Amino acid sequence: MKQNRRDQIIDIITNHAITTQEELLEKLRENGYEVTQATVSRDIKKIGLIKAVNAKGVMCYTLPGEPKKVIEPKFSSIFSNSVISVARAMNDVVIKCYAGMANAACAALDSMEFPEIVGSLAGDDTILIIAQNEQAAIALCEKLKAITDFEK
Length: 152
Description:
Layout: H1 2-15, H2 21-30, H3 37-47, E1 50-53, E2 59-62, H4 73-82, E3 83-89, E4 92-97, H5 102-111, E5 117-122, E6 126-131, H6 134-148
Antiparallel strand pairs: 1-2, 3-4, 4-6, 5-6
Helix pairs in contact: 4-5
């Protein structure tokens, strides 16, 4: 029973951004596990879950050693507060920023070390990113829009 519950916890945190033990407890109950907060706390410790910042800047549970790149909140904050729009053309991504903010946003972007990026160039209010290929540009646009909360 313990192992099934722990496997369910891993499945839940893999598929949902769980920020608190209470959220995890609720998801477990939705899946038929009647457990207490103390039990969830012990399971978290036993599994070795850690809290890390996701691409949207939200602190949530994750597995230790997950290959996901953790984006530091300061970089995502600088980027998201500087950007007006994100658009793609083939394997290029063009980011429009507020006047004078492109260099700071580009430096923050470079610090996030996205594997899709081959290179970047910033002007006063525009960033040009060269991605590895068109699919990488599409994936990068989705990630950048998630950071900035754009729904376009």
